[in-house]
Amino acid sequence: MSKKLTKRSEDYSKWYNELVTRADLAENSAVRGCMVIKPYGYAIWEKMQAELDSKFKETGHQNAYFPLFVPKNLFEAEEKNAEGFAKECAVVTHYRLKNNPEEKGKLMVDPEAKLEEELVVRPTSEAIIWSTYKNWIQSYRDLPILINQWANVVRWEMRTRLFLRTAEFLWQEGHTAHATRQEALDETILINDIYANFVENFMAIPVIKGVKSESERFAGAEQTHCIEALMQDGKALQAGTSHFLGQNFAKAFDVKFANKEGKLEHVWASSWGVSTRLMGALIMTHSDDNGLVLPPNLAPIQVIIVPIYKGEEQFSAISEVAQEIKQQLVDAGVSVKFDDRDNVKPGYKFNDYELKGVPLRIAIGPKDLEKDQVELARRDTLSKSFISKDSVAVVIPSLLKEIQETLYTKATNYRDEHISEVNDFESFKEILNSKGGFISAHWDGTAKSEEAIKKATKATIRCIPNNTKPEDGVCVFSGNPSKQRVLFAKAY
Amino acid sequence: MSKKLTKRSEDYSKWYNELVTRADLAENSAVRGCMVIKPYGYAIWEKMQAELDSKFKETGHQNAYFPLFVPKNLFEAEEKNAEGFAKECAVVTHYRLKNNPEEKGKLMVDPEAKLEEELVVRPTSEAIIWSTYKNWIQSYRDLPILINQWANVVRWEMRTRLFLRTAEFLWQEGHTAHATRQEALDETILINDIYANFVENFMAIPVIKGVKSESERFAGAEQTHCIEALMQDGKALQAGTSHFLGQNFAKAFDVKFANKEGKLEHVWASSWGVSTRLMGALIMTHSDDNGLVLPPNLAPIQVIIVPIYKGEEQFSAISEVAQEIKQQLVDAGVSVKFDDRDNVKPGYKFNDYELKGVPLRIAIGPKDLEKDQVELARRDTLSKSFISKDSVAVVIPSLLKEIQETLYTKATNYRDEHISEVNDFESFKEILNSKGGFISAHWDGTAKSEEAIKKATKATIRCIPNNTKPEDGVCVFSGNPSKQRVLFAKAY
Fold first, then answer.
1. Which ipTM did the prediction report?
2. What is the H or E stretch that residue B280 is in?
3. Closest to A154 (Cβ–Cβ): which among B35, B42, B68?
4. Mind listing the pLDDT tens digit for each residue in B378-399?
5. Residues 226 to 265 of A: which have CB under 8 A from any B CB?
6. What's the CATH fold of domain A12-83+120-286?
7. Which CATH number applies to A303-399: 3.40.50.2000, 3.40.50.720, 3.40.50.800, 2.40.128.110?
8. Cis omega before residue B397 (within 30°)?
């Protein structure tokens, strides 16, 4: 605890890794690229889950559960999707271990227990789900199907980072089936809007809604809608995606329905997901050199109460007040903890809760008792003030709201200051490397220019923003005509 | 819908399979032994999860998440555990597919992408978790660790049945670490009690608490506590287990802590779990030849309202009353649906909701409107009555409570009538085959007799019940002395 975190300005990446492990959010495991999500980190994820789940249900979605494994022949059915994920998937080939005759106490794969057909550990579930929907859909009356699944998925990433890119991660994946193209498109956009509202209002992270360029699309999609956030180091992070799949999966799995006229048509589809990656976005949007900063909506502990005392008598008097305040806060719907441990000092506790991003800290010492006050410290601004003991239950709930809004405003200001309109490639490169952030530039719409820009700068098209006005211009790279600006950035 | 379910008396197993699929609970998938849990079935599972999760949290447990994969060398560390699961585990050997050069559009395992060390898909997580705890535990101050995980696990069962035995299933698994043997034992029993209370009070399934004989214990445990339920066909079903692991995993993974005196000791452990298997117990405890019967606590829809009408005018008048009643019920905390579909007849709806186990059905026809009444049908007793429209919001909540209790009482009576005290092996066999159920008999405590009885009758020792009084007797099989009766049964 004594050691300070690496400063963001020194080494942003190191700061991130240290913060994640020292704030008890997650750690690397004995399995390459797979993480352990620790209780404190998982409690934050549970809050995200609960909120998102209620939004899905409010809009008519139901949860279900589909198999972890995808037989290889189903996996390869939708060609683009298969191609997109084949290079990074875990494959189950055997169903038994046996004793190793050459090494006592050791096990080996039993060659007799080879599967006839290999099983892919799902990197995403379109294939297994559409092979199931085939049996569920006969008529337009069976549509729409609006299903979501909370699950683990595996993508064999070579370079992994806690939360941001891990071989196994947790997510939700929605898979919907519709009678018309328009309905599936509407669903795709509805969900992208739900994601945007959730990430902005609940996580206090501003996002830009838009669509992906063809080369950045989900493998197998006709359109990928997305929300893009900006991290403090000027790199973008894709926070959620919602795909319009057209009839691709319906065709790959031969899923047809009889329309009202009795004619057979292929079904239209969407799929969409957000993952534990959002934890990375959360951390990198709000936190500072002292550790995690949590928006009150997501904080497992919103208020920590720390007693400052010498001797049993003081402790007992302070505890009484602390318990009283705690109860008032609980009654006001605030999540609060009284840390009465006697084996660590207040300073240690202060640092620890700062590191863990608890939004508000109340400290109570003997002088405060005399003055009927408590010391209140805000995690986001690191400012302190004294408030009357009797006003706690009134002040704190509104202060938590204020902190939530302040964090959002701060992040929005940062983001807005880091969108640069650029009209030539030299400035593009210069600004990307000096200031970072989003670069709003004209692009000729070709994969060739996109690829060349990426190669030259490592910047990708994050999205074609929904709110961009058409504007005639010339491509920042090729000089060819362009109809609108798109957003480039280096990205996680 | 028109076809009736197979009767339980004709073919219990067929009845079960038909019910599970036709009530939209689950179905087999394209992956051998893996099921799809459909939205209606998953909604029931979610209710179980929410209730159990709150009970775990109330008793100081936190959720976390550990990797899906267990490297083979960790898997084999605790020898008995490894031996118990090695024969039925899915093994990941490769991390990439590539295009099959011999068959266009097909993929094959890339031999270049062979893992140096194979990964076992977790059949249970003791190994991966204890290899993690090793780094979390130094001192007695780090203890206890009280962690639960909601996850999927894979056991390569050869004969699978929806919910009861599937290659992949969903469960929660708790893994706790303690400074003393007594603490770990207390935890083991606390959890078994939580399971018993949950299954009895929430699922309306009576259970017998007890401990397993040595040969029925969890691989790697020193004691396995369990709750055993009895199905309508006279077979027992293990509904939950809580294991006292002693120091076995701490020794296998070298997990030690410094006690208050600064001396290093191995940590004590428990682990415990319930799974989607509980869905099977739920179905087989309460349901009948018309389909599922759900205790109101678990019913996604507690009350269904069906209008009976001819023509638009009647429909509109009935709808108005239905909506009014619906709102009253929602306000009373009841989960209610008004089925106003016009493309299926009331009789179809009646059958459908009966099949799905909706506890109460309200039917409203034109005559009911005249009389200011509604027809109320109970799913559990299939009885009907008329109640005044204005009393609905008062009658129904208390009736739901009554149904919950009635189901529990009915199941308890059935169970109690199916515990037979038996003193000789001929009666043992005779009663097992004619009446079924639990057989309470003396056993000499040896694995030899236990095995011989199993071989001769297919009955296993379900548990040594906690509430059995010591009683001198002779083993029903060997004639050797015995100190108490244990419960035998054929089991799922």
1. 0.97
2. helix B277-286
3. B68
4. 999 999 999 999 999 999 999 9
5. none
6. BirA Bifunctional Protein; domain 2 (3.30.930)
7. 3.40.50.800
8. no
